[in-house]
Amino acid sequence: MRTTKAILFSLDALTKAKSERDRVDERIPELSVTQFPKLLHRLSLTDIQHLLQSIIIAFNACIDQSIRYQFTSPSLTEIIERALKITLRREAKPEEVSEVLQCFSDDSPIEFSKRMIMYLDILQRSGYIMGIVANLPLPLTAVMERFESASIMKYFWTIVLSSDYGVLKPSDTLFKSAIESLQCQEHEVIIVGSNLERDLLPLQNMASQKIYFNSRKKLEAPPEGVIAVSSLDELRTIL
Predict the structure, then answer these.
(1) Residue 201 pLDDT more than 50?
(2) Domain map of the chain by residue range?
(3) Were both Cys, which of 29, 191, 212, 224 would link to 228 (CB 3.0–4.6 Å)?
(4) Distance from C-alpha of 111 to C-alpha of 18, rounded to nearest angstrom
């Protein structure tokens, strides 16, 4: 029987600096008229600033409650659509939603080192299929351009973000959804995470192999069932 070679990475295991986060930044970005060619037909910049503040408060509150009570949170896009509907007194147009969403996208740096991209290329040529699982408040559509500009989209069969599913790691729902989209069984997938509590410890009942990739600080002793590595060379040796 053929065994699939598949790897699921947390986003922070791949990026130069930590990128994953649950909530939207509470700092309102500086606004300009060029950002809102559609909304400025109906709203002033001051109105839009108040709208953004309301969206931030609502989204972060939903995330806090979803973590506390384990329910599915509305996505950032859904909250933007509802806020615009109330403000405009009609259904929001897609381009209006995009203008607001872009304000939050501009504040989310996601960078990949050349060495990591080279490593992904090696894994792909070695026959691995790969995916990303990440806690991000932004939907995939909002960060796709960043992935494409870094030339990494070609390496991943699936990218599963918390905002698109309404749940957050450490819930195993995101990992199970990613494994299903890879069309694999749990035991056929290696999960590489950079945060024990968020990425690996919640998956103790899953049959996947688990690797703790900690390249940014002194390596901690991993729990039973988790392999720890501190460099790409070590990770490559295991894989």
Answers:
(1) yes
(2) 6-21+110-238, 33-105
(3) 212
(4) 9
